[in-house]
Design brief:
Blueprint lengths: L3 H4 L11 H8 L29 H7 L5 E3 L7 E2 L8 E4 L20 E4 H9 L8 E5 L3 E3 L5 H12 L7 H12 L5 E2 L16 E2 L1
Antiparallel strand pairs: 1-6, 2-5, 3-4, 3-5, 7-8
Helix pairs in contact: 5-6
Length: 205
């Protein structure tokens, strides 16, 4: 085992997965964004009411009540234990099995992996039962909740000093998007006056 100093600086939020967990968790279908229309489309000149959560992605990082999981290659998917929730839980339930309205089933978009926060909500609202939770994946390490408040406030302060076309919201959303990337790339650039020099192609790692 090498020390952090020997390995050099690493992203403390970066997870590592063994191949089976990667295939079944990372490569699995991700829950879709929840968008619901409850009224018929209206024509021009009519009033349309739209409800949206302001800066929901930023708030999810700054106001989270759960620590952020960081997975290692030793963390594997295990059968669920009734009464115990993992950081991520695999739910399989017929979307119409309870004959409930879409509002009553709000948040559930079909079988797949869900974070503990939404699973707790599902259970409290009886959207699912414990029998619908088939598998769990628990991280061996966690970043303390609220740890992103200072970095995000620094990003917002930096963007407040600019007058460009981008806002701190777009910058923060882009940063959050990077947390979910499945590939990273190394770019090699060679400056030369000779036509015989060919740079190596970009490669994922």
């Amino acid at each position: 085992m090498s020390t952090m100093h020997e390995r050099g600086h690493r992203n403390p939020f970066m997870s590592h997965f063994e191949k089976n967990t990667w295939d079944q968790f990372i490569e699995a279908h991700r829950p879709l964004a929840y968008v619901q229309s409850y009224n018929e489309p209206v024509g021009k000149g009519h009033t349309c009411i739209v409800a949206d959560v302001k800066r929901c992605r930023q708030s999810a990082f700054t106001e989270s009540e759960w620590d952020f999981p960081v997975f290692s290659s030793l963390d594997t998917i295990k059968p669920a234990t009734p009464g115990e929730l993992c950081d991520f839980n695999y739910i399989e339930r017929d979307i119409n099995c309870f004959m409930r309205s879409e509002i009553q089933d709000m948040g559930y978009v079909g079988q797949g992996w869900y974070h503990r926060c939404i699973v707790e909500y599902f259970l409290s609202r009886k959207i699912i039962s414990w029998s619908h939770i088939l598998f769990g994946l628990q991280a061996s390490s966690h970043i303390e909740r609220g740890s992103l408040r200072v970095p995000i406030s620094q990003i917002k302060a930096a963007w407040s000093l600019t007058h460009g076309c981008y806002s701190d919201k777009e910058s923060i959303n882009a940063c959050i998007g990077l947390f979910g990337r499945r590939k990273s790339y190394v770019y090699n650039t060679l400056f030369t006056l000779s036509l015989i020099h060919i740079s190596e192609p970009t490669r994922p790692y």
